[in-house]
Amino acid sequence: MAGLLTRLLPKKFRKKGVAIPVVRLQGTIMAGGSQFKQTLNLANVAPMLEKAFAMKDAPAVAISVNSPGGSPVQSRLIYQRIRALADEKNKKVLIFVEDVAASGGYMLALAGDEIFADPTSIVGSIGVVSGGFGFPELLKKVGIERRVYTAGENKAILDPFKPEKEGDIEYLKTLQLEIHKVFIDMVKSRRGGRLADDETIFSGLFWTGGRGLELGLIDGIGDMREVIKRRFGQDARLELVASARSLFGRRLPGVRLAGLDAQEIAAGAASGLAAGIEERALWSRYGL
Asked: pTM for the full model?
C-alpha cells in the first residue's frame, strides 16, 4: 500500500533511494523486566523485528548491537527470531556493533550475514559465566537461624547462606560447559571458514573491533551510514524502527503503569536496584 501511494505522488515529492529499516538492540539481555527498568529480551524486541522485516521494498535490515550480554536463553531466542525472519522474508541482515557486542551480545551479532564494527568496539567473550555472593557467616552474626526444607537431596544446591560444596561447583561447571558448547557451535556454524586458526577465540577473551576482524569475528570496519550508502547508493535512507510508545511518550512495551500500589512500587524499586547492580557489573567488565 505504501509503495502504491509513493508511485501516485508527483516525482518531486517522492523520496529517492532505497529505505533500509534499522533496529537498535541496546542493553543487557535479561528475561522479564519491571515498571522501573527495561531489559533486552525477545518479548521487547520481537515487534520491532517483525515491523522491520515487513518492509517489502527493503533489500536488507540493519541492526545495531550494543550489549555486554546476559541471559543465554534470551540471546538465542532473539538470534533465532532474526534468522527466521531473514529466511522468511528473504532479506540480508547487516549487524553493526557500537560500543560492545560481547558474550550474549556477540550471540546477537551472529544473526548477521555480515558484521561490522568500529575499530575501538569490543567483540567476543565467547564463554559462560555465573556469579553470585556467599553469606555463610552472616546469619550467625546477626542471630538469625535459616531453615530450609527440601524434597530431593540436590534441591538447595549452591545456597548462598551455606558453605560451598565441591560437588555443587562441579555440577554448575558441567552446565556451563554444555552452554559453552552450544555457543561455540553457533559461532562455527555462522562464521565458518572466516574464523582464524586461534585457540583463544573460544576462551572467553574479548578484543577490539580491529583485532576481531583479524580473528574473523567480524567482516569489516565501518559505521552504519557509511556501509549502507556504499552498499545501496548515496540516496539510501536509514529508517529507525522504534518500539511502541505509551501515553507518556516512553517506550515501554508490555509495561503497566497505572494501578500500582505502594507494595508493588517498593518491590519493583528493590528489583530494579538489584538488576541495576547486575547490569553495571556486566558493562564494567568491558571498561564501559
From this structure: 0.77
DSSP letters along 148-215, please? ---SSTTTTTT-TTS---HHHHHHHHHHHHHHHHHHHHHHHHHHGGGS-S-GGGGTT-EEEHHHHHHH
In whole angstroms, give the CA distance from residue 191 to residue 10: 45
Set of cell numbers at residue 161: 547462606
**Rounded distance between C-alpha atoms, residue 37 and residue 251, angstroms:** 11
Sequence spans of domains, the chain: 2-126+193-284
Candidate CATH numbers 2.60.120.580, 3.30.43.10, 3.90.226.10, 2.60.120.10; the one for domain 2-126+193-284: 3.90.226.10
CA atoms within 13 A on the CB side of 232: 22
- Backbone region of residue 145 per phi and psi (left: phi > 0; alpha: psi in -120 to 50; beta: other values): beta
Q: Cα torsion at 58, 245, 64, 238 (round to 10°)?
A: 40
167: exposed, middle or buried (C-beta count within 10 Å: 0-12, 13-18, 19+)? Answer: exposed
> Up-side HSE of residue 279: CA atoms within 13 Å toward CB?
18
Secondary structure of residue 263 in the 3-state scheme: helix
> What is the reported pLDDT for 14?
54
Q: Where would I find the beta strands (DSSP E) of the chain?
A: 19-26, 60-67, 92-102, 114-117, 122-124, 206-208, 220-221, 237-240
Encode pLDDT of 143-173 as tens digits: 776 766 667 666 666 666 666 777 767 877 7
Determine contact, residues 207/122, Cβ cutoff 8 Å.
Answer: yes
Report pLDDT digits (tens) over 173-220.
788 889 999 999 999 999 988 999 998 999 999 999 999 999 999 999
d(CA 229, CA 237): 8
